[in-house]
Amino acid sequence: MAKIEVENLTKIFGKKPKKALPLLEEGYSKDEILEKTGNTVGVNSVDFSVEENEIFVIMGLSGSGKSTLLRCINRLIEPTEGKIEVDGINIMELNNEELREQRKEKFGMVFQNFGLFPNRTVIDNAAFGLEIQKVDKETRRKKAREALKKVGLEGYEEQKPDQLSGGMQQRVGLARALAVDTDIMLMDEPFSALDPLIKKDMQDQLLDLHQNIAKTIIFITHDLDEALKLGDKIAIMKDGEIVQLGNQEEILTDAANDYVAEFVQDVNRSRVLTAEDIMGKPLALLYEGQGPRTALHKMNEENLTSIMVVNRENKYIGVLSIDGVKEMLDNDEKDIKPYLLDIPKASPCDTLDELFTKMTDIETPLPVLDAEGKLKGNIVKTNVIANLAAQENSAS
Amino acid sequence: MAKIEVENLTKIFGKKPKKALPLLEEGYSKDEILEKTGNTVGVNSVDFSVEENEIFVIMGLSGSGKSTLLRCINRLIEPTEGKIEVDGINIMELNNEELREQRKEKFGMVFQNFGLFPNRTVIDNAAFGLEIQKVDKETRRKKAREALKKVGLEGYEEQKPDQLSGGMQQRVGLARALAVDTDIMLMDEPFSALDPLIKKDMQDQLLDLHQNIAKTIIFITHDLDEALKLGDKIAIMKDGEIVQLGNQEEILTDAANDYVAEFVQDVNRSRVLTAEDIMGKPLALLYEGQGPRTALHKMNEENLTSIMVVNRENKYIGVLSIDGVKEMLDNDEKDIKPYLLDIPKASPCDTLDELFTKMTDIETPLPVLDAEGKLKGNIVKTNVIANLAAQENSAS
Amino acid sequence: FTPVEASADDTVNFGYVEWPGVTVKTAVASQILEDIGYETESSSYMQQVLFQGMRTGDVDAFLGTWLPTMEVNYREYYEDGVVEEVVTNLEQVLYATAVPEYVYEAGVTSMADLNEHADKFDHTIYGLEPGNDGNIIIQDAIDDGIYDLDDWTMMESSTAGMLAEVERATSQEEWIAFNGWEPHWMNLAYDIKYLDDPENIWGEDDKVLTVVRSGYGDEQPEVYRFLEQFVIDQDIQNEWIYEYGHEDRDPEDVAQEWIGNNMDLVLEFLDGVESADGQPATEVIQEVYN
Amino acid sequence: MTELLSTRIPLGDWVSNFVDYLVANFSGPLNAFSDFIAFLIENFEGALAVLPPAVFIIILALIALKLRGKELAAFVVLGLGLVANLGLWSELIITLASILTSVLVALSIGIPVGILKAHNKVVHFITRPILDFMQTIPPFVYLIPALMFFGLGNVPGVVATVVFAIAPPIRLTYLGIKQVPDELKEAGRAFGSSPLQMLLKVELPGALPSIMMGINQCIMLSLSMVVIAAMIGAGGLGEPVLRSLTTVDVGLGFEAGLGVVIIAIILDRLFRSEEE
Amino acid sequence: MTELLSTRIPLGDWVSNFVDYLVANFSGPLNAFSDFIAFLIENFEGALAVLPPAVFIIILALIALKLRGKELAAFVVLGLGLVANLGLWSELIITLASILTSVLVALSIGIPVGILKAHNKVVHFITRPILDFMQTIPPFVYLIPALMFFGLGNVPGVVATVVFAIAPPIRLTYLGIKQVPDELKEAGRAFGSSPLQMLLKVELPGALPSIMMGINQCIMLSLSMVVIAAMIGAGGLGEPVLRSLTTVDVGLGFEAGLGVVIIAIILDRLFRSEEE
Ligand SMILES: Nc1ncnc2c1ncn2[C@@H]1O[C@H](COP(=O)(O)OP(=O)(O)OP(=O)(O)O)[C@@H](O)[C@H]1O
Ligand SMILES: Nc1ncnc2c1ncn2[C@@H]1O[C@H](COP(=O)(O)OP(=O)(O)OP(=O)(O)O)[C@@H](O)[C@H]1O
Ligand SMILES: [Mg+2]
Ligand SMILES: [Mg+2]
């Protein structure tokens, strides 16, 4: 059973949300509904589930409903419609008292806007959740101190939040959530104000935590690197809907639509796909010295129309097409050298564009060679075209 | 003359900042001073200058004093010590009235914590600066509307800030600064809450603006990619000090100390240096068919002990050492083929570590070849070792 | 009605209104009673509250029921049987329209002269708090056009307000007509004259009563007897008011001194009264003052 | 030394002499002030009294309807209708005129002083005990001397009312401004706001809920002075209350008191929006 | 119809009858209440009066020194010393006792009601006119009938004081809680705070400046009732003020008034910290 199950969750902000619901079902867009009714669609029929001990990352445009979705899960925002189950408990049907218990036991939360108490010292802020859990003073100060140490705020325990920098405040919020030690952590851009070093540190700690203490985490971020590093599953939202949900691979390579593709691609120029990313292992290889019959056998077995030839050091020699094999057999030739095709070669760091140019005129897969000339893998045309298409669509 | 000149700027927070100043000069660290006096060092003797129409980026750990420094420039925070000149005007000596005029005329500002007015609608927030400049209502609403359009908030003009998502709020703050159209923009992590797509859009717009309307911008960010994209100069801060200041190249390659190196390197794994990044152009090349005398001449001219041999298509053939040349001359040989050394080759995407392994046993530079075997450049050992050293230090 | 129970002890609870005469009169009476061994307590109240206090049992006796000035207020309690009249402790009191002496000398000696100088008076007669019987008398006169006062107004405020106005006017020799009465320290503080009242709108039989709550005579016959005999005259009253209201002395001091100096009168008050422990009060008090 | 301590300080005499001195020397400017107040009251009264009750009620109800909705409009009709029915209309007008004057004066002094207090430590520390003084010194204490300047009537009534009712607007304006978050003040400063712009565009809007509460309390305290004002001849609804006292007429007192309450509720709702 | 309208509604009579009815039927519980208040006052008075003035002043000055620093301690010594010197010590104690009682009662009812008002719309809308009523209905109107329940003396004085002074703590507690930023309330809820925890750990700390202002106003308004309380026999510093009235003795009134002000300042400073 999934740890968290969300079904058909919808949140509409405004005076008469129920009035906007039918419009939403009729397929009016968020902007149209805003104009027509003055209501803002926060989250629109979202379904997903999070397994125990999974990090579920939510990404999406600013204003796409990530924070709203997160808040709906522990009903800080009352959903307009939908079902939320946590550990099999239907959150939507809890009364206030039960809801409080659930929040106390199950949910730690980090807010996008930090939500620190200005009158409390840093340590008392960090200890807030424990205080609510009625942990005795000594224990909670100890735990809070530890949490603050984890986030690198030793020495600032007795200061007030307004004496801290933005990133330090964010870390106090983080410490507050860490201190309570609940099953589930709801984290709304928890590292957005942190510099790369501390951010990396925090990410690593989060992974540690997640592995050692088995936490289920829902994590909102705008940083694809972060998403890829942390996320077991990644959901991408747009206008209140989840437009794609999958693991890293799926998100990166199989963009469900233009939006996702653009979102994922434009993210980070260094992430542009290269030969290395999309190449596959050749299904079969012909070794130097082997003859046309062996080639035919191997090709037949794997249904290939061409096969790559390498020497024993895996150094690339050339490619033999089925036509070449046939000719050799016809001429009863043993030496394959003259029958090898001279086709372009790819380097592992070639980009899709480069690959595409190299492949235009050839029918066989493209070999990917390292600097020593050794075969690293091969690339099939379809692969390149598919990825390229996704990219181009998103750019238009 | 520089647009902004900052000299020896220091800000100490706390009750008696003047008391902590001597300690700072004696070289006590920020933490020690906090413990000893209860005062926090915000900014510590910072010097820098920003030229007209330059984008000056500040990076650094959370709490390192970036926001404090930014606020000191327009004296939102009163510096404890130091000199600030803007357009030749000594900001520190202005009286209140003059300071206000300067702020109004010269500085637009985006705050890390947004600083939106909760009672004003989005459009009135965006128009705030213009209102202060006493621009008439119609014009200012027009300009504010344009600014909001630029940041993608059309349709939300009449909402209140608390009805917007975090990133949308940040963009309202941005629109407010854009609307006033001042010479200088002080931007404190202005894109931190934005998703990659909108962030890219905003960055591009900022670059446009900066090129077309000649703005001087001081920009705080935690995103090295962003810093590299936008910054003409980048300053890296630590514990209130600027530990390095330079252009992109300098920051990336010549880390002034471990901290910077770590900061810059760990940022983004895809940024790890590769052969392509550090390779240079060979000073001289020998072409297939040329003999030992030509080789000697070329090597002599450039003071080389070895020379790379390529064919007319620039395909790498091998490397000839001065020993080989001598031997050929002694034997009166014309064909260089047998005298070529077989040394390892690098691919453009090899990492420093890989390069280092390949170079251990050779004396000559390492050729960098693309997949076709063409020579792209060469790498000198010293280069690799220097970069590697910087990396290793920072990791310890 | 279920009145709040009277205090169980024998303390004599005097109520008084902060009018100088009544204040000192009450002080003298309590002093005498204390001297002969009774516990007393005096509290000042608004007159309305005071009678209510008799109903609730908080107040036993009041020495300043000024009739008919307090008539409206008093009548209800009297008719309800809450209050019982003991004696008229002061006769020949006066309540009438008064003017400063310089006005009197300028020819305004009778209420009939007022309207001649209406402008100088600003067509106004100053009275006490709304509802006061003097105010009502003047208002009736105005309404009925007596003394040609038809376009005059009755300016109502409060005792203090009216007196402050008198002080202001006299200090600047402005003309003013107001509701004055005697005994009161105003007669000593300012040179004032009372106007003739040919139409007799003010009536004649003003007097000050001692009243107690009903049944008090049975509870405290000795005190009651003392109160019956505690009657004074204008001169004494004026002396008290002067000492207290004008010389700013403590009422207790004034009372003590006066008792010491007027033992013969005090003995009359105490004639036949027994002290708290059953001795003849006359003897007890003489001992105290020797 | 002990003698010095045990000697009663003749504070009262000093004050009396001081007042005499004031009366003797400063009647001129005080008269000007008094005339100004009287002018305000008379104008209000004049403006309010020209209309017949029914017309007045209808107009006010329409204003209420426009500004605050139909509940208040209904209340205006019923409440003022009741007062008219009870025959207290002219008293109501008098009270209304002097309350409006008092509130006007108290707010137009109080809010600026509150603003000053929030910006200037010296003003803050000086005003604090002065406000305590003004709110707790019994009005009678200074009213009697004040009568020397102003004579009986509604002017001293307004003065006493202002003295008593001015503290809440000052204090709550101060509180409201102090509570405006620093980040907003910073944003205001960053764009070069002048002190006035800062005030109008950042501080006052942020302080509005507090200031509104100050206005509410100013109205309430002003109306609580109605009876005391009547004691110094201001007339109005305080007069029937006093009369009811003299004549032990609980009913009459209640009716007049109710008139005061009705004014309180109407003014409060008109001045402030739905949500407190 | 017209006749109906022009017929004066016998509201006053109804009220009189209602009061009679109340008196006839509800004296019991009210007596208990009255006894409780009397108990409080007497204990305060007892506790305060046992000490000789000098000792009392020194102890209070030490407390002031401990809590608020030497300025207040000095003020306590000078201020109360002056009152003692002026011979108003016993009056001061009486006033102090009933003010402490009133403030205690007003705060311990007012702050909880303010909290309720902030959380419950119905309470909010019901209390609003009631508070307006309590603050503006002249105390005389209900005091005379109330004497039937409470008898004369300081109990009805305390009742009237509480009625008048309870609105500010209610209203300012409400305002303070309403002004606590939503994000803090959200943070509180997210961690599963119970309503009580929410109140104690999030709302009240955030509302503190407003509540403090409510306490200040409660003290001020309580002290402003000293004279009215004296009119119904509560004694204390209001009595010399009343006396000064009838003798037009500006000095005496001022001295007693000053005593009230001194109490006001001391209580205010003791209850609230440096910064308002
Ligand atoms: N108002 C203040 N009072 C006291 N100390 C302060 C104050 N503001 C900042 N500081 C301290 O000054 C130091 C620098 O803070 P600053 O806000 O400039 O950091 P920053 O570089 O902007 O960090 P971040 O990236 O987290 O925003 C921090 O140690 C902080 O605790
Ligand atoms: N309290 C609110 N009242 C009205 N509309 C709201 C409210 N909160 C959010 N919204 C709207 O709901 C939509 C989604 O907001 P949300 O905060 O969930 O976005 P987000 O995905 O978290 O964005 P960001 O990345 O900028 O934080 C936005 O259009 C916003 O305007
Ligand atoms: Mg968000
Ligand atoms: Mg910062």
TrEMBL record, chains A, B:
<dbReference type="GO" id="GO:0031460">
    <property type="term" value="P:glycine betaine transport"/>
</dbReference>
<feature type="domain" description="CBS">
    <location>
        <begin position="279"/>
        <end position="336"/>
    </location>
</feature>
<feature type="domain" description="ABC transporter">
    <location>
        <begin position="4"/>
        <end position="264"/>
    </location>
</feature>
<dbReference type="GO" id="GO:0005886">
    <property type="term" value="C:plasma membrane"/>
</dbReference>
<comment type="subunit">
    <text>The complex is probably composed of two ATP-binding proteins, two transmembrane proteins and a solute-binding protein.</text>
</comment>
<protein>
    <recommendedName>
        <fullName>Quaternary amine transport ATP-binding protein</fullName>
        <ecNumber>7.6.2.9</ecNumber>
    </recommendedName>
</protein>
<dbReference type="GO" id="GO:0015418">
    <property type="term" value="F:ABC-type quaternary ammonium compound transporting activity"/>
</dbReference>
<keyword id="KW-0997">Cell inner membrane</keyword>
<keyword id="KW-0029">Amino-acid transport</keyword>
<keyword id="KW-1003">Cell membrane</keyword>
<dbReference type="InterPro" id="IPR046342">
    <property type="entry name" value="CBS_dom_sf"/>
</dbReference>
<dbReference type="InterPro" id="IPR051921">
    <property type="entry name" value="ABC_osmolyte_uptake_ATP-bind"/>
</dbReference>
<dbReference type="GO" id="GO:0006865">
    <property type="term" value="P:amino acid transport"/>
</dbReference>
<dbReference type="GO" id="GO:0006970">
    <property type="term" value="P:response to osmotic stress"/>
</dbReference>
<dbReference type="GO" id="GO:0005524">
    <property type="term" value="F:ATP binding"/>
</dbReference>
<keyword id="KW-0067">ATP-binding</keyword>
<keyword id="KW-0129">CBS domain</keyword>
<dbReference type="InterPro" id="IPR017871">
    <property type="entry name" value="ABC_transporter-like_CS"/>
</dbReference>
<comment type="similarity">
    <text>Belongs to the ABC transporter superfamily.</text>
</comment>
<dbReference type="InterPro" id="IPR027417">
    <property type="entry name" value="P-loop_NTPase"/>
</dbReference>
<keyword id="KW-0547">Nucleotide-binding</keyword>
<dbReference type="GO" id="GO:0016887">
    <property type="term" value="F:ATP hydrolysis activity"/>
</dbReference>
TrEMBL record, chains D, E:
<dbReference type="InterPro" id="IPR000515">
    <property type="entry name" value="MetI-like"/>
</dbReference>
<keyword id="KW-1133">Transmembrane helix</keyword>
<feature type="transmembrane region" description="Helical">
    <location>
        <begin position="250"/>
        <end position="271"/>
    </location>
</feature>
<dbReference type="GO" id="GO:0015226">
    <property type="term" value="F:carnitine transmembrane transporter activity"/>
</dbReference>
<dbReference type="GO" id="GO:0015871">
    <property type="term" value="P:choline transport"/>
</dbReference>
<keyword id="KW-0812">Transmembrane</keyword>
<dbReference type="GO" id="GO:0005275">
    <property type="term" value="F:amine transmembrane transporter activity"/>
</dbReference>
<feature type="transmembrane region" description="Helical">
    <location>
        <begin position="47"/>
        <end position="65"/>
    </location>
</feature>
<feature type="transmembrane region" description="Helical">
    <location>
        <begin position="96"/>
        <end position="118"/>
    </location>
</feature>
<dbReference type="GO" id="GO:0031460">
    <property type="term" value="P:glycine betaine transport"/>
</dbReference>
<feature type="transmembrane region" description="Helical">
    <location>
        <begin position="72"/>
        <end position="90"/>
    </location>
</feature>
<dbReference type="Pfam" id="PF00528">
    <property type="entry name" value="BPD_transp_1"/>
</dbReference>
<feature type="transmembrane region" description="Helical">
    <location>
        <begin position="130"/>
        <end position="152"/>
    </location>
</feature>
<dbReference type="GO" id="GO:0043190">
    <property type="term" value="C:ATP-binding cassette (ABC) transporter complex"/>
</dbReference>
<feature type="transmembrane region" description="Helical">
    <location>
        <begin position="218"/>
        <end position="238"/>
    </location>
</feature>
<keyword id="KW-1003">Cell membrane</keyword>
<keyword id="KW-0472">Membrane</keyword>
<comment type="similarity">
    <text>Belongs to the binding-protein-dependent transport system permease family.</text>
</comment>
<keyword id="KW-0813">Transport</keyword>
<feature type="domain" description="ABC transmembrane type-1">
    <location>
        <begin position="92"/>
        <end position="271"/>
    </location>
</feature>
<dbReference type="InterPro" id="IPR035906">
    <property type="entry name" value="MetI-like_sf"/>
</dbReference>
<protein>
    <submittedName>
        <fullName>Proline/glycine betaine ABC transporter permease</fullName>
    </submittedName>
</protein>
